Amino acid sequence: EVQLVESGGGLVQPGGSLRLSCRVSEYSVSSHDMNWVRQAPGTGLEWFSYISGESGVTYHADSVKGRFTISRDNAKNSLYLQMDSLRVEDTAVYYCMGGHAEHWGQGTLVTVSS
Amino acid sequence: DVVMTQSPLSQSVTLGQPASISCRSSQSLVHSNGNTYLIWFRQRPGQSPRRLIYEVSNRDSGVPDRFSGSGSGTDFTLKISRVEAEDVGIYYCMQDAHWPWTFGQGTKVEIK
Question: How far apart are CA A110 and CA B89, in angstroms?
Fold first, then answer.
């Protein structure tokens, strides 16, 4: 069974940094596209980061471009999200998503507050 | 960015009755490869989203056949032929044809 397990969320002050991890089982991050999606409290979903399984090419939405970086470790079969210069509006549940949304993790909450 | 507009935003349905959700995109979701990339999800309270339909009309494994997706270009529909209690939740459409991928606002389905 495919499993995606996020970790690394928590409380951080505005301007701070956080690194999220997504440990993946039974689904290779090196051969499948992977994404990060977030959901602010009580609101809808926002896709914001993608990494190609084949080439490693990345895309980021304008809302996080220059502040967030998606990466992967093929040996550990894990996906990462480095988040810098965090803002209050980045507060959300962050989901690791496999492929074209066929697999989702359980989410990890990131709270940006002073 | 492609704007995805769902309607209605909430729907109260009697058990056993049909339900229908519309999703319209601000531009065609036909990719350069000829495929149309429109996905439907359901998110139950406190849970992660689950994909139900991909590429407009393809049901994911384990999704009951009372769920069907249809449409083309910019106009899409998710239909539930006979609503069951387990179908409650928020339904989202998402386009994965153009960067950035974008979601509809969500449609809350509840039982009357």
Answer: 23
Of the candidates B100, B104, B105, the beta carbon closest to that of A47 is on B100
Which residues from A are below 8 Å from B60, CB to CB? 102
Q: What is the pLDDT of residues B87-96, one digit of tens each?
A: 999 999 999 9
Tokens 């990494």, located at residue: A51
Q: How far is CA B57 from the centre of its chain?
A: 10
Name the closest residue on chain B to residue A43, using Cα atoms.
Answer: B105
Instruction: Give the CA distances from residue A63 to residues A49, A67, A86, in Å, rounded to whole numbers and listed in that order.
Output: 10, 9, 11
**Would the CB atoms of B49 and A59 count as touching at under 8 Å?**
no
A42: confidence class by pLDDT, cuts 50, 70, 90: confident
